[in-house]
Amino acid sequence: MPNTNKKWTVMVYLAGDNNLDQNGVEDLNEMKKTGSTQNINVIAQFDRAGAGAATNRYYLKKGTSLNADVTRSLGETNTGDPAGLIDFFNWGAANYPADHYLFVLWNHGQGWDDTDVYAGERGSGYRIPRSNRIRHSFFETSVKKAAKLSVGNIKTTRAILLDDNAKDFLDNLEMKKVMDAAKKTIGRKLDIVGMDACLMSMAEVGYQMRDSVLYTVGSEETEPLEGWPYDTILSAMNNQPDISPFALSKLIVQHYITSYKGSGEAVTQSACDLSCSTAFAAAVRKLGSALKTGLSNPAARASIVDIRNRVQDYEVQDNVDLTDLCKRLKTSSVSAIIKGACDSVLAAIKGNPGLVIASGYMGASMKRSNGVAIYFPTRSVSPLYAGLDFSKKTGWDKFLKTYITVTRS
């Protein structure tokens, strides 16, 4: 029977049909340290690794076995299919209604990049998704990413909600459709989308969800296998059941960063207020236009290239911290127009209101991380980039193409 409304329902969608299977078990048990209470519902869907392995739905409770928390077994599922994610959300909202929802996508991640990492395994350079939209696969990046699947203790850089058995994943265009569907289900914007995955705190990713989500929480850098500290986050939520989505987003960032103190890991985490997306995109459009014009001046071009070589970047080096980029440009010999555009971007990120409401890092290599990354390649621009809402609105891809043309000619 459906529950009466609680303050929060936490929905965690664990795409574990890959090399993160055991980490999924560990995180579910971590969630059970608090579990569902009189204040919060904690539910999950977990696709296990291997062909034919069961996908289970859970209503997680403290003091029970994990098997005892299973509410339904779905058999084999494809976590890369948006229909499965929508069905999970609809099930959760119908059976465990709440005043607020925290919707967590748990898996690998590669930010905006929708390159098909499975293309080589299929023997084809193309993936035909449910929308019948043909997506090119870039074998150079795919091979590099595929080679990293089991390296070290990192949730490696792969597309989000990746399913090794189905050889599928959720791309950013599909992500938008999922969040639009969730908004329709509950009749309002979703409170928080958490991405317990690598590289997801990007301007391009958040902008895709701007019309259906209030806040996002994610990382500019890769995440260690431990991911989010669900035990401390859920405990804090239970102790503060009336916490607002704004405050909870900031609290998750705080608990994530604190959980890695003394670990030696280089980590980042940030929360973004997507209601600031319009002003943010307008500022980036202004910056991209100014930079594109500035590239025609040899001195300005040299400064821009030098700054790109020194700016804060991440495991995927095509991703750079946007705040650090603008701060460095402001102290360089570029034009006053570019510096003014940088001021507008910085105000849109850190103003009151501003896009980034909380950010933190651990590790000296991450010290210039400020909460939101942007795509800034130096060798080529993926043709997939032009399909994103952010690219269409800001024209950032036009600057990128000009940059690569003038610096690699």
Please give a structural write-up.
It is built from 14 helices and 15 strands. The strands form 4 sheets. Strands 4-3-2-1-5-9-10-12-14 form a 9-stranded mixed beta sheet, sandwiched between helices. The longest helix has 18 residues, at 277-294. The chain folds into 2 domains: 6-114 and 145-275, Rossmann fold (3-Layer(aba) Sandwich), CATH 3.40.50.11970; 278-353 and 373-408, no CATH class. The protein starts with 5 loop residues before the first strand and ends with a helix. By secondary structure, it is α/β, with parallel strands linked by helices. The chain has helices at 21-31, 82-95, 119-122, 139-146, 172-186, 203-208, 230-239, 245-259, 277-294, 298-310, 322-330, 336-350, 389-394, 396-408, and strands at 6-15, 40-47, 55-59, 70-75, 98-106, 126-127, 135-136, 154-155, 190-196, 213-218, 223-224, 267-273, 319-321, 356-362, 373-375.
Question: What is the number of E strands?
Answer: 15
The number of distinct structural domains comes to 2
Estimated radius of gyration: 21 Å
Question: How many helix segments?
Answer: 14
Q: What is the correct CATH architecture of the largest domain?
A: 3-Layer(aba) Sandwich
Fill in the CATH topology of the largest domain: Rossmann fold
Provide the β-strand percentage band.
15-25%
Question: How does the overall form come out from the CA principal axes?
Answer: globular
Q: For the record, what CATH class of the largest domain applies?
A: Alpha Beta
Instruction: List SSEs in N-to-C order.
Output: EHEEEHEHEEHEHEHEEHHEHHEHHEEHH
Amino- and carboxy-terminal Cα gap: 66 Å
Uncertain spans: 123-158
Q: Note the main sheet.
A: 9 strands, mixed
Sheet with most strands: strand arrangement = 4-3-2-1-5-9-10-12-14
Measured as a percent range, the helix fraction is 25-40%
**Mean of residue pLDDT values:** 89
Helix/strand class: alpha/beta
